[in-house]
UniProtKB/TrEMBL annotation:
Pfam families xref list: Acetyltransf_1
Species per Swiss-Prot/TrEMBL record: Amycolatopsis acidicola
This protein's name: Ribosomal-protein-alanine N-acetyltransferase
Keywords associated with the record: Acyltransferase, Transferase
Domain annotation N-acetyltransferase: ranges: 1-150
Gene field: rimI
MF (Gene Ontology): N-acetyltransferase activity
């Protein structure tokens, strides 16, 4: 697997994966992905050796130098490739980018997504609270989680 900047030509594939992963909610549309890329988000694609997109992830950062804050906007992995380290690789790449900026990282995750919650816990995230009925139309709740900025972790 190789991680590279997400290519616009692969957005249709991202939408396919979204529909598989988030069928009970509101999967991202092509327009949503284009909007995120237009806004300058840090988006990566995970590609097989045959150059097939099997996962994607995005990080948005706001603020000024010395006062940045980041949010994981999405991580998605084709179900056929889950459990192979694709999601872990994507998350680590996003966190490395946040560490370059010394930014804390926030995210929301479904309260019933045990696999993702464990991944985030292993990478230093802690729960801050619950957003009731965050995901629509299912009405599923989400945990809000935070990973401190690199400086707050005691890492220089």
């Amino acid at each position: 697997m190789k991680l590279t900047p997400l290519r616009r030509k692969d957005i249709a594939r991202c939408v396919e994966i979204e529909k598989l992963l988030f069928a009970g909610d509101d999967p991202w549309s092509s327009r949503a992905f284009h909007s995120e890329l237009d806004a300058g988000g840090y988006y990566l694609g995970a590609y097989t050796d045959e150059d097939v997109l099997v996962g994607y992830a995005g990080l948005a950062t706001v603020g000024r130098p010395g006062d940045f804050e980041s949010s994981v906007h999405t991580i998605g992995v084709d179900p056929e490739y889950q459990g192979m380290g694709v999601g872990t690789g994507l998350l680590r790449a996003l966190l490395a980018r946040a560490d370059e900026l010394n930014a804390p990282v926030f995210l929301e995750v479904r309260t019933d997504n045990d696999r993702a919650i464990e991944l985030y816990n292993r990478h230093g995230f802690t729960r801050l609270g619950v957003r009731k009925r965050y995901y629509q139309p299912s009405g599923a709740d989400a945990y809000t989680m935070k990973r401190p900025a690199r400086a707050e972790q005691g890492v220089s």
